[in-house]
Amino acid sequence: MAFTPDASRLVTLCSNRAAAKFRDPESGLELLTLSGGSTMLRYSRFSHNGGTLLASRPDKGNVWQDWHAPSLERIAEAEKKSGW
Length: 84
Hints:
Layout: E1 2-3, E2 10-13, E3 18-23, E4 30-35, E5 44-46, E6 52-57, E7 63-68, H1 72-82
Antiparallel strand pairs: 1-2, 2-3, 3-4, 5-6, 6-7
C-alpha cells in the first residue's frame, strides 16, 4: 500500500492479474486498476514526481515491476489524435 506523492490517491497491491488498484483515500472508491502478472506484489513506491509506480515481486528476489504514467500533455495529444 502506498500513497501518491501528493496523497491524493492510495494504491493497494493484489495477488492476481489486477496487480494494483488506485483508490480515493477518503471514499475508498476504486478509480483505476493496473494489470500485471499473476504473482503477489508486496512493496510499492512512487517516484518523486508520481509518474512511476514500482512494486516488488518477492518470488523473484529483488525484481520490481514498474508502470509509467504519461504526462497530461501527452494524454491530451493522444486524445486529440484519436478524436476524443
